[in-house]
């Protein structure tokens, strides 16, 4: 059961990382189809960066925990 939870955490982390990193990159490029373009100003960039880093940290911790269980 714990292995399944680690794999689920890795999948969620990848989804969060891809979603917010793509929003950050597309928003900086000035493209109109950024997923969360509704927020304005520099706060959107900060929010995207924080959530992308959080997704990366979650993925790293899930990977380390998964490797300990093998």
Characterise the protein shown here:
With 70 residues, the protein is mainly alpha-helical. The chain has one domain (2-69). 80% of the residues lie in helices and 0% in strands. The chain has two helices and no strands. It has helices spanning 2-29, 42-69. Helix 1 packs antiparallel against helix 2 (42-69). The longest helix is centred in the first third of the chain and has 28 residues, at 2-29.
Largest sheet: none
N-to-C SSE series? HH
Shape: elongated
Overall number of strands: 0
DSSP helix fraction: over 70%
First-last Cα distance: 13 Å
Structural class, judged by helices and strands?
mainly alpha
**Domain module tally:** 1
Average predicted confidence as pLDDT = 89
- Report the uncertain regions: none
> How big is the Rg?
14 Å
User: What is the strand content?
Assistant: under 5%
Number of helices: 2
Provide tags for this entry:
0% strand; 2 helices; 80% helix; mainly alpha
List strands and helices in order, with pairings.
Layout: H1 2-29, H2 42-69
Summarize the structure.
Helix content is 80%, strand content 0%.
